[in-house]
Write a structure and sequence with these properties.
Helix content is 38%, strand content 17%. It is an alpha+beta fold. Strands 3-6-5-4 form a 4-stranded antiparallel β-sheet, with no helix packed on it. The longest helix has 18 residues.
Length: 138
């Protein structure tokens, strides 16, 4: 039987081709519940993002360079966890600070990484609360 309608989500441009593991800094909530989904697993302090996870990379009017890929991946996953009530909204500060640290570690210039940190810190509250809706076609 042929599927008559597909369900999908918009907004993604990258897809992970191998699992990625992140050891979160101490400022994250150590008391947050463990989370297991099809695309990531979290048990403080480790997040494993599974092969196939899709994310949109750098948001806004900017260049999505290699120095931004890893930081944008983990930042998007943490914000998704906040949006899905796996982490509290207070985790945004820790996520934004970790984002900044990874941008530095991956070689982004100081001016650019501070500008990016400011943008996610200033405008990230909405995306942390938003869940991409499932869209149906046709």
């Amino acid at each position: 039987m042929t599927t008559k309608q597909i369900k999908y989500k918009d907004g993604y441009k990258h897809q992970l081709q191998a699992d990625a593991v992140f050891d979160l800094p101490a400022e994250f909530e150590s008391n947050a519940k463990a989370i297991k989904t099809d695309y990531y697993e979290y048990a403080y302090p480790i997040i494993t993002i599974k092969r196939g996870y899709a994310w949109d990379g750098a948001s806004g009017p900017t260049w999505d360079t290699a120095a931004a890929k890893r930081a944008s991946l983990i930042h998007d996953v943490i914000y998704q966890m906040i949006a899905e009530d796996g982490l509290s909204l207070e985790s945004r500060k820790a996520a934004d600070n970790y984002f900044l640290a990874l941008l530095k570690e991956d070689g982004m210039s100081k001016f650019r990484r501070i500008l990016w940190w400011w943008a996610v810190h200033k405008f990230g509250k909405g995306p942390a609360k938003k869940i991409n809706p499932v869209i149906k076609a046709p």
